[in-house]
Amino acid sequence: MPVGNDPFIETISAHSAASPRWLSIVGIGEDGVDGLGAAARELIGGADIVFGGRRHLALAAPLIRGATRAWPSPFDVAVDEVSRHRGRQICVLASGDPFHHGVGAVLARQIDPREMIVLPAPSAFSLAAARLGWSVPDTVLLSLHGRSLDLIRPHLQPGARILVLTSGGDGPAALALALAQSGFGQSRLTVLEALGGPRERVRSAPAAAFAFGTVDALNTVAIEVAAAADARILPRTAGIPDELFEHDGQISKREIRAVVLSSLAPHRGELLWDIGSGSGSVAIEWMLSDPTMQAIAIERRGDRAGRIVRNAAACGVPGLRVIAAAAPGALAELPVPDAIFIGGGASDVLDGAARALRPGGRLVVNAVTLETETLLLGRHAVLGGELLRFSISRAEPLGEKIGWRAAMPVTQWKWVKP
Q1: Is 202 exposed, middle or buried (0-12, 13-18, 19+ CB in 10 A)?
Q2: What is the DSSP secondary-structure string of 75-93?
Q3: Which candidate, 4, 35, 230, 207, places its Cα nearest to that of 126?
Q4: Are 46 and 15 in contact (CB under 8 A)?
Q5: Residue 359 CA to chain centroid, in angstroms?
Q6: What share of the chain is helix, strand, coil (3-state, %, to 5)?
Q7: Adjacent-strand bridge partners of 219
Q8: How far is CA 412 from CA 30, 83, 204, 262, 346, in A?
Q9: Is-cis flag, bond preceding 72, omega within 30?
Q10: Which spans in 220-294 are helix H?
Q11: DSSP label at residue 102
């Protein structure tokens, strides 16, 4: 029977025992049951089992008539636990919007959305933007919950506004310290705690003067980015300045690197093998092109592999996978790449790399020695592709005057696998 004049309640009632929609996902805020509509209340009250975090279950306790299940640890088994009850009326409680860094997206990887009824509540981002008067489309939304703080680094652009979910009460102070150490100490941080509930609190301070003491574990941090003259700002285009990388001279120079990235032509969600990675600069810039990008840096020298790890963190892509081993042996058992860049040792790995590449993938090889150039000319004659030769000259002091000093020319072969 419909409740009052709410057509959605009538729709829910129609999806009872015989309905394929056995799973409901209800967003709940810090205001608890007071913030829920009639439809959400009906789904919670009519569920055989209600899943959720202990905080969510406590907030919804006045409505729950079925059994309760707190999320298991580790959380990875949660989807299987929910799926085992397919056919019964199951309700999952989520923080705010279940599909905005929430449990809804996790469940939808294995459970058909057509089996779900989803009632989102305002997300922490929406609530924070409402308190601050910020336009959500003009704001960077970033979750650092259980993730590396380094992920914020590419977004630290002067004048940017960022909303960040942290991992707990210590998160805002750690974030403030990271900003201050990178030249963004004058950025204004606003910590919004327990939004929407009776414990809500909003406080602001510059990152360099952050000293709030105790912060509620449920917090969102708003950042208005201000950069000092020496701030470590990562450019938004290919060709990051060489001085932003730690290296021992084994690095693709910024101009060469920009050409390499153009030839690799990264597409969303692709995987790169960077063979003979040196400083990791090509793999890092590949990953910076889009948050979905993946890369594996293969570098035989352990000291350079360590530098790659540090460079990846400093450039905001801590997810770069680094293999400290020599190719071609290091290539065995790696996932199939969409693109491969070979910056050194091409004679040992070129044929194996070409075989490993997926059909339609791109192989880009740079040569500075005559021996490697000869190898590339031979492959081009047999396999086709594109050959490019370029050189860079820089104006440098020459006695009391300035003259052009040419870098070694580079021959590049690009091949797309049929």
Answers
A1: middle
A2: GGGHHHHHHTTBTB-EEEE
A3: 35
A4: no
A5: 27
A6: 35, 25, 40
A7: 193
A8: 58, 52, 52, 12, 12
A9: no
A10: 254-264, 281-288
A11: S
Query: How far is the C-alpha of 245 from the C-alpha of 325, rounded, in Å?
Result: 21
For residue 18, the model assigns a pLDDT of 43
Q: What strands, in cross-sheet order, belong to the sheet with 362-367?
A: 321-323, 294-298, 271-275, 339-342, 362-367, 410-416, 386-390
pLDDT of residue 75: 81
Give the span between the Cα atoms of 111 and 70, in whole angstroms.
Answer: 19
Q: Which residues pair with 365 in a beta bridge?
A: 342, 413
Q: Which residues contact 174 (CB under 8 A, 6 or more apart)?
A: 149, 166
For 43, the token pair is 């789904």
Strand 219-224 relative to strand 161-165, pairing: antiparallel
Structure tokens at 58: 């406590």
Nearest-5° Cα angle at 236, 234 to 241: 50
Residue 152 DSSP label: G
What are the per-10-residue average pLDDT scores of the chain (418 residues)? Answer: 48 51 96 96 97 96 97 86 94 95 92 96 97 98 95 97 96 97 98 96 98 95 97 95 93 94 97 96 98 97 97 97 94 96 88 95 96 96 96 93 93 97
Rounded to whole angstroms, the Cα distance separating 272 from 294 reads: 6
The secondary element (H helix, E strand) that includes residue 171 is helix 171-181
CA 379 to chain CA mean position, Å:
37
Question: Which of 131, 132, 155 has its CA nearest to residue 144?
Answer: 155
Instruction: Give the Cα separation of 276 and 330 in Å (integer).
Output: 11
Residue with tokens 């030769």: 389
The Cα–Cα gap between 288 and 286 comes to: 6
